What does this fold into?
Amino acid sequence: MLLNRKTNKAVLFADISGSSALYKTKGNSYAKSIIDHLLLKIKKLSVKHKGRVVKTIGDEVMVCFHEGQSCIETAIAIQQSFEASYSQHRLQVSIGISFGEVLEENGDLFAETVNDAAYLTKMAKGSQILFSEGLLTELPASQKSRAREFDWVTFKGATEPSAVFRMYWQGDSDLHNETRFLSKDLVLEHITNQILTLKKGDKEIVIEEKMTPFMIGRNLSSCQITVEGTQVSREHCHISYNRGKFVLIDHSTNGCYLKPKNGLEFYLRREEFPLLENSDLSLGVPTHKAGDNLIEILYG
It folds into this structure.
């Protein structure tokens, strides 16, 4: 058994999403050949940017780097290469990165840094690059300028939350639009009263910060608003209060449909979204099919 002394490294996980649908629609042999080709592309890009491929786990590749700049450059190159894959095969890649002390044993890596990177990969949606504050300190100014604070999370085994950052790699318009939407000034502009009113039929509930998390779903014993339906999970979603705003968090099988009063409907599944304006909410089915199960979300 070969055990190396502790060293600091950047650890990157790249996880391909959408492969299940590809297998179902295109068949096992074709789908596997596409996934294998994309995994090989991730590995080649990693090696090109001075990374070491540690291992492949299903549709996921684990890579390590001696320094953060090469790691971020690799992550951006991977996302850019996947843009064509999404248009052709509806495949995307989620990337999580952490920087810190690791232990190396027989070529594999262990320690909190590895666990944190894996956690961030699961947290990231397709096409996103999420990374830890430890990596941010390792980046040059040119790369830091394209990063923004994304969230605060408590990693497994930790007692205090840590900042998570997102790298905007798609261009200046992407950076401007995303950061403007989630900026503190815009949140405060929309939220004048720190309460929400939920209306479902003739039932109306006013939610304050101290009442969160506020659960919505089929379960009568755990949900403050109950919704019946074959597409509704027992605990479908909940509303939390985080950093000065209410946030809708979905953890269901069939997702949520959210339609701002003055905007287009969109779909959330296993993700969260800040509630910044009056909206209609439907669980498991589009809002126009919700009927009596439609929930209105109103401020003030």
